[in-house]
Structure formats: C-alpha cells, structure tokens
C-alpha cells in the first residue's frame, strides 16, 4: 500500500512535467524543479560549472531530463514521453546528489 502511494506521487510528477512543458513553453523550470536540481542538470548537460544568468524554461529542462533518459531529440521525433522522463528523473536524482556533494564545501 505504501509503495503504491509513493509510486503514484512519482508518476504524477513525471506526467505533470511532461504535459506542462508541452502546454506552456515559457514557464520557469522552478515550477517543477528545486534550484539545486536545475543547477545540477544545467551543469551536467553543458559540462560546465558556470550557471546561467536566467533560469531555463521548463520546456528546455524537460528536454534535458528526457535526454538523460535516452531521448535522442531528432528532428522528427515525438515529444518525450513518460518512460523516457522516468529514466531521466532517475539519472537527475543521482546527478543532483553528486552536485550537492561537490558543492557543499563552497
């Protein structure tokens, strides 16, 4: 019963991210991700330690998360779906943990 409740919350977050990014392309990614999550995602995706001056859009961060999950982002590919987003969120969780670990001394 507890596992089902936990998985329902996780599934809701993944579906919410996927659909919200398709509906409103100009939303800030902070409606879904904590600042440390999007910062870790940005640094990992761009292979840099410099953060952007502006918060990325939700659509862009969802694309980055999907690419972590194996989405290829080719010209005629459909938008990323829940399976790819699930895999991407698993990788994002690990990336965020490492980002926090490396940033704790700063």
From TrEMBL:
Residues 9-90 form the Transposase Tn5 dimerisation domain. Gene3D superfamilies: Transferase Inhibitor Protein From Tn5, Chain. It holds the Pfam family Dimer_Tnp_Tn5. InterPro entries: RNaseH-like_sf (IPR012337), Tn5p-like (IPR047768), Transposase_Tn5 (IPR003201), Transposase_Tn5-like_C (IPR014737). PANTHER family: TRANSPOSASE, TRANSPOSASE TN5 DIMERISATION DOMAIN-CONTAINING PROTEIN. This is Transposase Tn5 dimerisation domain-containing protein.
